[in-house]
Amino acid sequence: MRMLRSIPTLAACVLAFSSSLLSAAPIDLNDGQHAVHLPDAPKRVVVLEFSFLDSLAAVDVTPVGAADDGDANRVLPRVRQAIGQWQSVGLRSQPSIEEIARLKPDLIVADLNRHQALYSDLASIAPTLLLPSRGEDYQGSLKSAELIGKALGKSAQMEARIQKNRENLKAIAQQIPAGASVLFGVAREDSFSVHGPDSYAGSVLEAIGLKVPSVRANAAPTEFVSLEQLLALDPGWLLVGHYRRPSIVDSWSKQPLWQVLGAVRNKHVAEVDGDSWARNRGVLASEQIAEDALAILKGGKAVLSQ
Amino acid sequence: MQRSFAAVGILLSGAGLFWLSLYSWSPFTLTATDAWNGLVHQGRVGGNMAYIVAQLRVPRAVCAALVGACLGLAGALMQGITRNRLASPSLFGVTAGAALGLALFSTGLVAPPFAGGALLMTCLGGALAWFTVFSLGGAWSPTTAQGRLVLAGVAVAALCAALTRLTVILVEAQAQSVLNWLAGSLANVGAAQVQLLWPCTLIGGLWALWCAPRLNLINLGEDAARSLGVGIASLRLQVFVASLLLVGASVCAVGPIGFVGLIAPNILRQFLGNDYRWLIPLSATLGAVIVLGADLLSRAVAFPVETPAGVVTALIGAPFFLFLARRAL
Amino acid sequence: MIRPRLRLWLLLGLLLLATLVSLSAGTLWLTPHTVFERLLAHDVLDFEVWNHRLPRSLIAILAGAAFGLAGAIVQGVIRNPLASPEILGVTQGAGLALTVAIISWPHLPIAWLPLVACLGGAGGALLLALYNTGVSFSGVRFALSGVAIAVTLSSVTEFLILSHPLDINTALLALTGSLWSRNWHHVALVLPFLVLIPVGLCLAKPLNLIALGDEAAHSLGTALSRTRWSAMACAVLLTSLGVGVVGPIGFIGLVAPHMARRLVGGHHQYLLPAAMLIGALLLVLADTLGRTLIAPSEIPAGVLTAVIGAPYFLWLLARFRG
What we know:
Chain A: Keywords: Ion transport, Iron, Iron transport, Signal, Transport. Chain A: Pfam families: Peripla_BP_2. The complex is a heterotrimer. By secondary structure, chain A is of the alpha/beta class. Chain A folds into two domains: about 140 residues, Rossmann fold (3-Layer(aba) Sandwich); about 120 residues, Rossmann fold (3-Layer(aba) Sandwich). Helices cover about 45% and strands about 15% of the residues of chain A. Chain A has a five-stranded parallel sheet with strand order 5-4-3-6-7. A five-stranded mixed sheet of chain A has the order 10-9-8-11-12. Chain A has a two-stranded antiparallel sheet with strand order 1-2. In chain A, strand 8 and strand 9 form a beta hairpin. Chain A starts with a helix and ends in a 9-residue tail after the last helix. By secondary structure, chain B is mainly α. Chain B has a single domain, classed as ABC transporter involved in vitamin B12 uptake, BtuC (Orthogonal Bundle). Chain B has 13 helices and no strands. The longest helix of chain B has about 35 residues. Chain C is mostly helical. In chain C, helix 1 packs parallel to helix 14 and helix 9 packs antiparallel against helix 12.
């Protein structure tokens, strides 16, 4: 009798055991530096750069922690809306390992450029992806997003989102007058840094069919320029992100020489949000940049978050 | 005779560098004609190129000359009053103090809202640094070893640089901005900076010339000077205020540029001896020549990207300081 | 009237207390009881105490002690209260070597950077030695030559950084004195201090004699030149290694010897250990503050030592005027 009563329990145990075996899907991938093995789709993710936050937002995953320089407002608004709240782990350049460990993540995504020194520590807390972020261009950011999607166990969803992104950008490209030359730069109180065709914003602009002038041959992705050099570049459109107000562009615009710029005479100068265009990078950021560019070229305004 | 030759030589090279900087190393192809039109006709004749020369190049060259003059004057004054050939605004931490004042102002931490607030902050910063250095280094005691003031200056300069970094880090966690603060550059100067500089240079220069005979007497020895009726405390105060104005104005306009105040008077001493009536005006001129040259180099070195002029003067000035330190002691 | 030896013990006690505070402080405050538990457990996955705060505090203690000791030695040899290891060109040589390495070999493994920094520091010291050959030793001239070399090296460094803006972040991070990301690997790198520091402490007697003045030292039979050079070599090694591990952290070598002198007087048997302990205390304090003031963001320890040094400078100023 006892044997008969224990059979359903035994059967239940066997079923449970086999179903857990079936749903545990280990993920193996290589981030270009190391082979990473995840025993299961991660549920607690910590990311250490804005572009990785963007990738999470693309597949509707909320991280438990993110390095946000202590200021959530620096993150793209649409990324914040998609994700919700996260715990700050400090500066992107020097995130706090204590905070990261305390969150007990099962996946960490770190910046190849900045966080190499932390890699061994991070890897002992959780499987860690080391991906490029700073100095990356649009195509590179898509590759990183794909890897992150794979690590999250959401490859199909990420592929679909990236495809949608490509279509969105193509749709925007069709509405944009061909070959218009657009220059984006970031203005501080005493310097103006131009983002060339190899920079993130520049590569997105080129992806939607705009021409981005280059400061010189073999230029770095971003270069500081003086007013004289800006005059020599003479772009058709000038888009400025002000990191601090009043910025150097504000004082340049008071000079009579400012009117010599073709963009100024044709009223083709517009303000964009520096954080969205320069600091964030990723799938949603590229769409923000493209939409802003389209709005401006059609005579409207870009989205400016405060 | 030698003095007149030196004076004429420096003036000519200054004029030559000024002329060159009007049209060389530009992303545009500027010609000498454009330079002429820009300078003389202020760009109303000759089209866009001449207009660019008039609006950008001329103010920049004038600014470079004025900044150089300010720093050369300040260096000569400081060397005169301390009887120390190594005295100069950057080695004594005054430039670093002024840069800290400017950083506090520009990041909004300590920002007097009236016009001229920036100049006030740089002068205050420089004054605090000077005061600290001179007290630490025992500047006025007769037994001070020459190098002690420099050591104090280096320590204070390092402190000011660290505090500047802290200020920028607290306000904006950006690595790039910190370096921009600490390297003076002429890349973005315009008419506003010229407006700021020329009254300060004029006042400072005239004041320095007026102090020159008394500085000569001080160099004979303080007791000798006192017996000849020189009010030493009053002279110190005047030199203090004049140098602060000069250094404060130049840092406010272009940021910290070092070594000019060290190099100019020391080179001139080779030819002119220690006569401050010649040393002061010619230090101003030679300082202008040095900064004009550095500005040209800053555009030429990695054309078309600009290197900050402060880095160029440091690259030239540091080896010079090496040479001077070995000889002076 | 507390005797110097007792003061040394007090300093040691203060250091232990500061270390305990450092281990308890961070993005989350832990009670001392928890800290002891974690220490006994030594769990490799404990990223609060065992694998983060403990190695950082150990490095801070050893590096701070090294900087303090080097500062006291340098001031003893140069006999000028404003001399410090930072002005000898060692720190700047290390910085230049790091910058050149980061720019020329961007994929250099991080583990090599401390070695590069040490080599650079030794190079800077070598330049200093070469510059001073053939001239009779004068404390102030030696210090000034250090300043000249330091300034030259740092202007070359600045030029390189400004002309390679892409590598700026990595270079600046390495050039900022900070204990961020320092872990047990770096503790292994500071182990040589356990040998160097006792060697430095042996210099106490010769430094006492030097302090009496050149003639007195000569007449008492010390091989003056040899002592000076070996003392300087020791100070350079201490500073080089320290900079290699934590980056250029200033003011400890300047301020710690002064504080030590105030506490225990000028006899180097007490002065050297006191400078060590105070240096360690300063760096532990700076690191703790840096980690907690704007947590979870960090302020580099090198910036905070300057901020702590500033009031002391003004206080020094008030004393000198009197």
